[in-house]
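Quick one:
INPUT:
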C-alpha cells in the first residue's frame, strides 16, 4: 500500500535522515494509528535493523528474538548466541553497525519500545549507554523509537531526567487521519462514498487507518459497520478490551474516567470527575489525565472567558464513544443490527454530538471555508447556567477572531438542507443574547451555521445567519 497523507510527519523523518548529525527520533501515537507503517514506508531503504518488542514478553524472550532478528540482519548462517543482558545485546548491535559497509545514514528502528523495557530488565539503561557512548557520536546513525503507550514514552524518554535527558532530537505525534485523508485512504481501496457517508463512518470509528482497512468496496456504510462492529468476533467488538490494557499499567483507573465521560459527552471539570470516580487527588491522578490526553482519548478545553483551572475534559476518541454508546451493551448479531439502531432516537442524539466533535476537530477547514484562515483566532466552547435576569445557554463552538468578530456556530447533522423556522430563530437569538449578557463582549457576533447540506433559503436564514458551512467544506 502507498502512504496516504502524513505529509508533515513524513517530511520530518526525511529531514532527520538528511541531517549531518546523529538523530534520535521518537514517534508517538494511539494504537492502530499507523506509526509503524509510516516509518517503514518513509525509511524502508535505510532501515538496517528493525526489532519489535513482544507484548507481555519476558526479558529472556525479548533477548532471544532481538538476537535472532539481528542474526538475520547480519545474514549469518549460524545464529548469534542469546545475549545475557541488554548491555551485551547492544554490544552486538554496535559491532553490526561498525562493520556495516554502507556510507549513507543507517536507520535502527526499535518498535513498541515500552514492551522491550520489561520490569527489572535495565533495557532503558543499556539503550541510554548505547546512545551516549556510541550512536550520538556518529553522523551516520538515525535511531527511531516508537510506542503506542504514549504516556510511557513521555515519562520514560521525553521527560527522562537521567542519561536520556534532552537526547531526543525530534518527536512526532501521529494523529488519526482527518476527513480528507480518510477519503483518500478509502479511494485507494476503491471504496467510493459520498462526503456525508464518509462523515458517518468517521463519527463511528474516527480516522484510524487499521479500522478503515476493515471496510470493503461494494458495501454500504450500514453494512460495513454491522460487519465490523456488531457481528460475533468482529474486530471492533473485541478491540476495546485490549485498547486500554495494552497502553496503561493501571487501566482500571483510566477506565473509570472514560466510562464517566462517555456518559457526559459534553464534558466535565476535573473536580467533578474526581468526585464522581472517587479518584484521590495527587500526582497519580494527574498522570491519568495526562496519559489519556496524550494518547488521544480525551481532550481538555477552556471555555470562553473562564480560567485555566476550570477547563472541561471530554472524551475525544470516536471509536470509544461509539463503542460505549452502541456496541458495549449489544449482543452479537448478523441481522442488520446497526441498520435498526440507526432508526432509534438514541442515534439522532448521538449523531448530533458526534458531528459536533467532527467539526471541532476540523476547525481549520471550517475557517478556510469561512475565508478567515488568515486571521488569528481561537476556537472555544462556552456555557452558562443563567440567573434570574437571563436564562443559561451553551455554545459548543465559537471562533473568537482578532478582527473583532466572533462566529457563533450552530451545528446540525440532518439528512436534508436545514430549515430555520421562526421558533428556531427565536431560540438562537436568545442564546446569542445570553452569551452577550454574561460575557460582556464588545465584539460583533456572526451567527454561523454548520450543516450537512446547507440551509433552506427563507426569510429567517437570510435575515439573521451571516455565514454557512456544509459537510463538503470539512474536506478542504
Amino acid at each position: 500500500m502507498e502512504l496516504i497523507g502524513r505529509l508533515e510527519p513524513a517530511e520530518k523523518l526525511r529531514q532527520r535522515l538528511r541531517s549531518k548529525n546523529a538523530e534520535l527520533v521518537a514517534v508517538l501515537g494511539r494504537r492502530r494509528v499507523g506509526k509503524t507503517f509510516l516509518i517503514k514506508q518513509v525509511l524502508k531503504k535505510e532501515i538496517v535493523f528493525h526489532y519489535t518488542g513482544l507484548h507481555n514478553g519476558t526479558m529472556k524472550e525479548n533477548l532471544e528474538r532481538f538476537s535472532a532478528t539481528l542474526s538475520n540482519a547480519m545474514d549469518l548462517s549460524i545464529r548469534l548466541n542469546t545475549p545475557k543482558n541488554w548491555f551485551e545485546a547492544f554490544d552486538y548491535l554496535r559491532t553490526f553497525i561498525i562493520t556495516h559497509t554502507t556510507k549513507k545514514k543507517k536507520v535502527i528502528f526499535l518498535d513498541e519500545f515500552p514492551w522491550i523495557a520489561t520490569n527489572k530488565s535495565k533495557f532503558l539503561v543499556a539503550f541510554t549507554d548505547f546512545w551516549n557512548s556510541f550512536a550520538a557520536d556518529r553522523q551516520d546513525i538515525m535511531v527511531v523509537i516508537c510506542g503506542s503507550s504514549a504516556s510511557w514514552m513521555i515519562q520514560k524518554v521525553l521527560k527522562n531526567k537521567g542519561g536520556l535527558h534532552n537526547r531526543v532530537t525530534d518527536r512526532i505525534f501521529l494523529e488519526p487521519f482527518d476527513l480528507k485523508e480518510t477519503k483518500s485512504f478509502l479511494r485507494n481501496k476503491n471504496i467510493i462514498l459520498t462526503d456525508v457517508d464518509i462523515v458517518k463512518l468517521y463519527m463511528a470509528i474516527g480516522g484510524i487507518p487499521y479500522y478503515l482497512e476493515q471496510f470493503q468496496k461494494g458495501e454500504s456504510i450500514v453494512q460495513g459497520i454491522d460487519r465490523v462492529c456488531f457481528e460475533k468476533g468482529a474486530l471492533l467488538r473485541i478491540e476495546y478490551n485490549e485498547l486500554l490494557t495494552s497502553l496503561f499499567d493501571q487501566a482500571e483507573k483510566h477506565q473509570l474516567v472514560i466510562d464517566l465521560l462517555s456518559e457526559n459527552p459534553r464534558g466535565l471539570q476535573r473536580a467533578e470527575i474526581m468526585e464522581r470516580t472517587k479518584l484521590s487527588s495527587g500526582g497519580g491522578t494527574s498522570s491519568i489525565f495526562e496519559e489519556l490526553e496524550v494518547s488521544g482519548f480525551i481532550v481538555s478545553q477552556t471555555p470562553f472567558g473562564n480560567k485555566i483551572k476550570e477547563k472541561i475534559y471530554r472524551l475525544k476518541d470516536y471509536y470509544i464513544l461509539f463503542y460505549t454508546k452502541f456496541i458495549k451493551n449489544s449482543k452479537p448479531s448478523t441481522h442488520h443490527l446497526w441498520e435498526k439502531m440507526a432508526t432509534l432516537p438514541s442515534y439522532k442524539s448521538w449523531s448530533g454530538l458526534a458531528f459536533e466533535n467532527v467539526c471541532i476537530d476540523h476547525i481549520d477547514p471550517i475557517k478556510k471555508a469561512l475565508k478567515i484562515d488568515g486571521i488569528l483566532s481561537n476556537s472555544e466552547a462556552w456555557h452558562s447556567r443563567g440567573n434570574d435576569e437571563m436564562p443559561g445557554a451553551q455554545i459548543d463552538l465559537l471562533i473568537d477572531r482578532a478582527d473583532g468578530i466572533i462566529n457563533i456556530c450552530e451545528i446540525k447533522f440532518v439528512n436534508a438542507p436545514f430549515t430555520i423556522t421562526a421558533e428556531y430563530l427565536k431560540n438562537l437569538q436568545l442564546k446569542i443574547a445570553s452569551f452577550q449578557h454574561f460575557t460582556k463582549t464588545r465584539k460583533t457576533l456572526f451567527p454561523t451555521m454548520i450543516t450537512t447540506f446547507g440551509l433552506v433559503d427563507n426569510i429567517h436564514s437570510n435575515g439573521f445567519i451571516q455565514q454557512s458551512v456544509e459537510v463538503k467544506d470539512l474536506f478542504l
